[in-house]
From TrEMBL:
GO molecular function (one): monoacylglycerol lipase activity
Pfam families for this protein: Patatin
BP GO terms, sorted: lipid catabolic process
Name the record gives this protein: Patatin-like phospholipase/acyl hydrolase
Length: 345
């Protein structure tokens, strides 16, 4: 039985360093079992989903090399390097923008030019319809109050739903208050105003599961494997009392929204896979960040110290789940659980 292989990556701003680091480890395991030193993440999943920073990662893993359109342009290591080296430039506050926005009170906290320039540099004029594999990248259309799921299948079939990949990245990462909404147009010329998909699906794993069922008739849990990667959880108690106001609730509410949605989706998928006795077909890898200062959870903290802490957290998460990631790499390469023992012996 050949399995459909799904990767899902949470939102979380610069905390995308965590999944990017975890996936470097996974790519090395894939290279080990495939016998290909040049094997890449985007070539060993059949479907990748991402929200916000996870949407950026999804686009980069699936972006084809113009010289060889059947091959991924970037390795997991190159993508992690981009996050580590360019994160500070993306979340950059120019004096002009800071003054114009009254320090973020009357405008976005950051200008979007650096992000847009980097996106164009990385993916060029590649269209959504041209990426390597099926995908799901989330965003929200604020003009029509509707969820948007960017995916290759729709883009390939209808120019109205096809976009430049750089615009998809801009749309999924337009976090309210941090970046201004993305004003983008489809290949057919229709304009949209988009914000970060994290407002409704910070963990897009369930969205990916449902979307993947459209790939093949009668596809269900015993024919799909899902790897869900988080951007860190923060399980500390919040000191909230009955007299707390907006300032006291701001960070806890932000966290509860992101964490609560992710935990609910994780619970739902675990339940689905337990019901068909295929627990090992679903793997959630995340890192509890309680051992770190609370500042590590800030989605725009791009100080060198914080980047180092995020790298460390990602490396620890990969190490703590190394046995599970190793087994998952075998599933990705061999596509059949019954062959794993034979192939690895």
């Amino acid at each position: 039985m050949e399995l459909i292989r799904i990767l899902s990556i949470d939102g979380g701003g610069i905390r995308g360093v965590i999944p990017a680091t975890i996936l470097v480890t996974l790519e090395k395991l894939i290279q080990k079992y495939s016998g290909r030193s040049d094997a890449r993440i985007g070539e060993y999943f059949d479907f990748i989903a991402g929200t916000s920073t996870g949407g950026i990662l999804t686009a980069l893993y699936l972006c084809p090399d113009k010289k060889n359109p059947k091959r991924a342009k970037m390795s997991a290591e190159e993508i992690a390097k981009f996050y580590i080296e360019d994160g500070e430039n993306i979340f950059h506050k120019s004096i002009k923008h800071t003054v114009a926005s009254a320090f973020g009170l009357f405008g976005s906290k950051y200008g979007c030019k650096n992000l847009e320039d980097k996106c164009k540099e990385l993916v060029g004029d590649i269209k959504l319809s041209e990426i390597l594999k099926p995908c799901l990248i989330t965003s929200y259309d604020i003009n029509n109050n509707s969820t948007i799921f960017f995916n290759k299948a729709d883009a390939f079939a209808d120019k109205e739903k096809d976009f430049y990949l750089r615009d998809v990245i801009r749309a999924t990462s337009a976090a309210p208050a941090y970046f201004e909404p993305a004003y983008i147009k489809s290949i057919s010329g229709t304009y949209y105003t988009m914000i970060d998909g994290g407002v409704f699906a910070n963990n897009p794993s369930m969205c990916a599961y449902v979307e993947a069922t459209k790939l093949r008739y009668n596809l269900n849990a015993d024919k799909m494997i899902v790897l869900s990667i988080g951007t860190g959880s923060y399980n500390k108690n919040f000191r909230i009392n009955k007299n707390s106001g907006l300032i006291n609730w701001a960070f806890p509410l932000f966290y509860m929204n992101m964490s609560g949605v992710s935990d609910s989706v994780d619970y739902q998928l675990r339940t689905i896979y337990e019901s068909v006795d295929k627990n090992y077909y679903y793997l959630r890898v995340d890192k509890d960040l309680r051992e770190y200062p609370r500042s590590i959870f800030e989605i725009d903290n791009t100080s060198k110290r914080n980047i180092r802490l995020l790298q460390e957290a990602g490396s620890k998460a990969a190490y703590e789940s190394l046995h599970e990631l190793d087994n998952f790499a075998k599933l990705l390469v061999y596509k059949d659980f019954s062959l794993i023992k034979e192939k690895s012996s």
